[in-house]
Amino acid sequence: MLQPLRRTPVAVAVLAATLAGAAISGVTAAEAAATGCRVTYTVGSQWGGGFSANVAVTNLGDPLTGWTLRWSFAAGQTVSQAWNAVTTQSGAAVTAVNATWNPNLATGATATFGFNGSWNNTTNPVPAGFTLNGVACTGGTTPGPTTSPTVTPTSAPQTPPVRTVRAYWLRPTDVPYDQRYVDGIAGVMREAQRYYRQELGRTFTLNDPVVEVVNGDHPRSWYENTPNGNECYWWVVFNMQQELLRRLSLRAPDSRWVNVGEISAEASCSGGGGGGGWVILSGHDADGAAGINGPMNRWYGGMVHELGHAFGLPDSTSTDGTPMSASFYSYPNTHFSQAQKDRILSGPYGSFLS
């Protein structure tokens, strides 16, 4: 997961604090863009227990690169198969994300998709409202952000509970949506949660959804090639962290949450690290979590290692059998020392563990 062992974990918190200060100093051009949308939802045909529907979403605001449409059913309908969009459902809440071939919505452009679903054979009402990238589709435009953060397709609170761990997958504009990343990162976080319970008798709480998907503002190459920090090892992850700080009103350090960011971008020199309530990881970590790059124990152990930094632990000075050394590669055959356990529980995020 990591480039050899993570270097200077404190550097993450130091630069992040600087970025946090910069993030609130002004309004960017993107934040002043116009937003608005219109949705037409039509039930095409209906039969016993099933129906098909067509959806047309028109962007009335500034151009979008990557779109996510959300709505909620009112009568127990479910989506079973979709085309021209990737749809998922949690309870009544449905999310439709652009397919790989239709991510761009120019001003005035319309994207169409359809799906088959089930209904109760009694009533099949049109959903009462829709949002496009977090903006309510009212048929008009309003000033505001065009790049609202999007989350995995599940019903989530607007403000996640404090003293929990939030995980993000930042998807550059030219990277297609892939559910393997959402599911894989969530699996790594749940395994880390289990491991901390095993080792400390306490563990952290994950938010719902476990992974929040953030549609990035830039293509992959921008994150990889825009200098940020004193060496290219940090460019990708600092560019990601800075965007997350701005987009989600996060802080570094952040006393409300421990934040875990992963991005699908990586240059040949890219790495990652942790510190000050943050874990920031580049493309090979995201790929590993998705099952694309190497054995899973490596990615599980690496997350345990980086969360250790986030909770206040330094690297071990030798390969000592603890996950804060190269012993994390032997996961799950690695264990925190008593001193490390005590330091986590007495540290600034110890109260997050219960």
From TrEMBL:
Superkingdom in the source lineage: Bacteria
GO biological process: carbohydrate metabolic process
Signal peptide residues on this chain, from the entry's feature table: 1-22
Ion transport in keyword set: no
Keyword annotations of the record: Signal
Ranges for domain CBM2: 30-140
Molecular-function annotations in GO: hydrolase activity, hydrolyzing O-glycosyl compounds; polysaccharide binding
Alphabetical list of SUPFAM superfamilies matching this protein: Carbohydrate-binding domain, Metalloproteases ('zincins'), catalytic domain
Protein name in the entry: Cellulose binding domain-containing protein
Lineage of the organism: Bacteria, Bacillati, Actinomycetota, Actinomycetes, Micromonosporales
